[in-house]
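User: Hi! I'm working on a homework problem where we have to compare a predicted structure to a textbook description. Could you give me the structure for the chain below?
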Amino acid sequence: MSALLFVVVTIVIAIVIRFYEKNTNAMCKSKKKLDGKIAIVTGGTAGMGLEIAKEFARREAKVIIACPFKEEGVNARKEIVEETGNEKIIFKLLDLSSIESVRKFAADIINTEDRLDILINNAGVGVPSDFVTADGMSFIMQVNYFGHFLLTLLLLPLLKKSGTSWQPSRIVNTSSILHQIGAYDIRNLNRTDHWFMFQIYAKSKICLVLFARELTKRINGSNVVINSVDPGAVGTRIFDSSGKIYGPIFTFLCNSLYKTPWEGAQTALYVALDSEAGEVSGEFFKNCARARAIKWAYSDKLARIIFDDSVKCVKLTDEELNACLA
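Assistant: Happy to help. Predicted structure tokens:
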């Protein structure tokens, strides 16, 4: 009898959660067209990134999707073209865990494109076993944060060139609700021996928020805005790192009770497209509205320290940094 009661209560709770979440998930209502615009979506070959890329394609943008897996990229491009009818979809290899790959990708974009209007820093890994990469960085931190930090700075001159005072170029960082516990040991950016791997993941996500706030100060008046988003609990392949048993379970539960990749993509789309969202920079968004990040995200001192330490980690020279920010 007690077991049956437990099952019934669990089902009722799940139904209530699903009803509430599915009826409060906000949707991007912007009708903005993107013909003549160019957008880059890292991780644009699966999950939320793929949904974001499809929506940009529907709005007639030229969309560059990036990931480190050739087969996945080729298949994603084919899927986007077939669903949207937009042939202006390009797949490029990008391994965010490699400084060399990020530099090669950025140089290719600078050399082949005459503008860049939207950069979606979406790619990320969950909590696989962490290790130090060939560049001397935590793998999770490099993929989720350092790679995007370097990529953004290298592409900044092209973003500046493309933005105007009435229509700025936009950068969107995909953070997470877990950024709220990311301040733990944040000064040790490349530490890999945490008790729980999600502490490293959380640290990477608050770093993205701090980066957006610090970069906003350093490029003020440059016709480029950068904001961070919390997509909510979304059923994507990021849970694959939880194992062959728990991964699919977590993905199913998030899709069923919280957000599908399409629903999770809405806040990033809102920040990339909405006119009011384009008027602010360094802000945090959730459910298609401005929200408050954890209090540590508003520490100017911490943001400055993390920025300067990150420059050293990705091996940017002073000359390169000045050229990016000039």
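For your comparison, note the following. Residues 225 and 280 are 7 Å apart (CA to CA). Residues 139-162 form the longest helix (24 residues). Good luck with the assignment!
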